[in-house]
Amino acid sequence: MKKVLIITYYWPPAGGPGVQRWLKFVKYLRHFGVEPVVYAPENPSYPIIDKSFESEIPDGVKVIKKKIFEPYSIAGLFSKKETETISSGIISKEENQSAMQKAMLYIRGNFFIPDARNFWVKPSVSFLREELKNGDYDAIITTGPPHSLHLIGLKLKEELGINWVADFRDPWTRIGYHEKLKLTDSSRKKHEELEKSVLNTADHIITTSFTTRDEFNSKTSKPVTVITNGFDAEISREEPENDKFELAHIGSLLSERNPAQLWKAIGELIQENKEFANNFRLRLAGKISEAVLDIISENAIQPYLENEGYVSHAKALELQRSASVLLLIEIDSEETKGIIPGKLFEYLAAKRPILAIGPENWDVERIITRTGAGEMYNYGDINGIKSYILRQFQKYQQKDLLSNSHNIADYHRKTLTEKLANLIKNL
Mind telling me which InterPro entries this protein's record contains (predicted)? Predict the structure, then answer.
């Protein structure tokens, strides 16, 4: 059996999508002849906690932990709200940023390269050097963000020559928030140099999207493989039971993940169609920015809103399956067309129609088209968005909302883990 060391920042009790990818890989790797060992921080600063994930760690899996110096814990002494906001990725537009947030973004971008977990690199390399020498490992895997973890892999590769796989859940220099970090020219160059070193030193690179794969293929000759995120639940076979026609978004809505035409379309349908208004509900679950809530109010949707706040993963799955239509929204920019939200795959398993709104040539459209799970629109297409919602409302009235999607099983976590295990065995 192959043995791998997985170096990750996010591990239970962390909540959110960042923890799920490698928790689920660890869950299934033994099925395919790979023994996982996990290395994670002992004292992390997680923006979201979900203790329900702890029960999913397989029995007997070795988890090594080491303390980390967390700048966010110190920053929180000065402004806890700003610290939590930045660490969770909710960054206001330039004109709406407070002086404190502007200062913290500048410090984060230029003094902590590639990110605020860079203080973990040197002590981790020293600590893991001995673990790897004595533990008979076949490979190491680093997963980012935070991309500083790839620097741990880089140093260990250079020192020990061990097989190394670098997993990118998000891009590095082209990640959506990178331009908001107020980078100086020298800081930007440093990010690019570090990214280049990682891409050209790792034995194999994994991405979660096709766009990031293509980007990395233009930067390195090393093999790059797409292994998307997935779902780990039974595929729903039942019509949703709900007293309302419910549009639901499960997950964070950032300030810029906020399609004005969607909210306008809903507001118009409420005003124009009395039957729709009497049966409609909008449900949001997750961290929601004030900018999103403001525009919902401006379009007179507030009376129809159920704002759940953050919910456990188990509750999130429940809400997905009780919805009539599931909303999938991404920031409308060139940098985000390669982001495939993890919730997409759970949406697929829920078998509810998906209304996706995002940038042109978004990778999500490729998956939705392949599975027939819904439709994708650009931000400005109010007529298309409005027409789709109305068609689904008519299906709701006919009790015909179970999606006729196909090829869903390809995105089960176990199927994806088999692909990962074969990659490891072929290093």
Answer: Glyco_trans_4-like_N (IPR028098)
Q: pLDDT tens track of the chain, all 427 residues?
A: 999 999 999 999 998 888 999 999 999 999 999 999 999 999 998 888 888 899 999 999 999 999 888 775 444 434 445 444 444 444 555 555 566 666 667 676 667 788 888 889 999 999 999 999 988 999 999 999 999 999 999 999 999 999 999 999 999 988 766 666 777 888 889 989 999 999 999 999 999 999 999 999 999 999 999 999 999 988 887 776 778 999 999 998 988 899 999 999 999 999 999 999 999 999 999 989 999 999 999 999 999 999 999 888 889 999 999 999 999 999 998 888 999 999 999 999 999 999 999 999 999 999 999 999 999 999 999 999 999 999 999 999 998 888 889 999 999 999 999 999 999 999 9
Question: For the residues of 43-96, what is the DSSP string, one character each?
Answer: S---S-B-GGGGGGSPTT-EEEEE----HHHHHHHH-HHHHHHHHTT----GGG
Q: Is residue 67 part of a domain?
A: yes
Q: Are 195 and 250 in the same domain?
A: no
User: Is 78 contained in some domain?
Assistant: yes
CB 120 within 8 A of CB 44: no
Task: DSSP letter for 236, please.
Answer: P
Regarding whether 268 and 162 lie in a shared domain, the answer is no
Query: By residue range, what is the domain housing residue 338?
Result: 245-409
Whole-prediction pTM? 0.86
**H-helix or E-strand spanning residue 284:** strand 280-285
Please tell me whether residues 160 and 252 are part of one structural domain.
no
- CATH number for the domain including 392? 3.40.50.2000
Cβ atoms of residues 292 and 302 within 8 Å: no
Residues 225 and 262 in one domain: no
> Domain check: are 155 and 191 in the same one?
yes
- Taking the C-alpha atoms of residue 363 and residue 221, their distance in angstroms, rounded to an integer, is 23
Q: Which residues pair with 158 in a beta bridge?
A: none
328/363 same-domain check: yes
Distance separating alpha carbons of residues 264 and 246, to the nearest angstrom: 17
For residue 240, being part of any structural domain is answered with no
Reduced to 3 states (helix: H, G, I; strand: E, B; else coil), residue 257 is: coil
Of 349, 416, 427, which is closest to residue 31 (Cα–Cα)? Answer: 416
Give the three-state DSSP class for 250.
Answer: strand
Question: Is 236 within the bounds of a domain?
Answer: no
